[in-house]
Request: fold
Amino acid sequence: MKAVFKTTGGGKDPTRDVSVNYAEGDTIFREGELGTEMFIIHDGEVNIVKRFGSETIVLSRLSKGDFFGEMSVIDNAPRSADAVAASNVTLLAINGARFDEMIRKTPEIAVRIIRKYSKRLREANAMLERAVGEETNARRSPHATEAQIDPAHRMRLVDMATGIAFFFSRADETTIGRADPVTGILPDIDLTAVDTNRSVSRRHAKIIRREGELFALEEVGTVNGTFVNDQRIATGQPFPVHNGDRLKIGLIQMKVVLD
Reply:
């Protein structure tokens, strides 16, 4: 289905936003295309999709208020993934001129984008470090399983409503929240799939590993609270957690499993 365009400000002013409508299943742009616009979701949902040979992976599912496609506007490089309408969707298309105006008038937008790419760089470095470490361990003990190399990765939170397991990071801190492509927040445990009421904050809490002990820590700005065995924990204060404890994140009831 061809998109329907409407200028929200009238006339042909290049700094005006343009409303774009796509039907469910429509491709908004494809990997490799040159991009001159970024998009903000006004209504509906969009999947960012990456193709690896015959396999297709949904990298993220975006909803109202999220933005995407900004990389091509910033560096004039081809699109790095496909964007597909996951439902009937209305977008605001923002071209380079409008984007420059937004950056000048609202510096916070630039800060959010910088944070997003800083997070991506840190994650890429962490992936590289893990890959190097796993290769080294494999050479030392070629017959060891992954669980034997790093037992900590078996530690997890289990959603008590669905049984879905969310595994801890191999690092000393495991972040918990909801992914936010706008700010680049990508928690280690992303509860978006089970948080139908959006009760979990983007940066909600952490599980911290210290000298073999585990602690839950609620982040500053969390809205709906964090509870261990029905006890509300104080923001910014580590609270010990143990195997079998119930951890409530917003409205999501989780069980701590450490074996």
Observations:
- Helices lie at 70-75, 96-105, 107-140, 146-149.
- The chain has a mean pLDDT of 80.
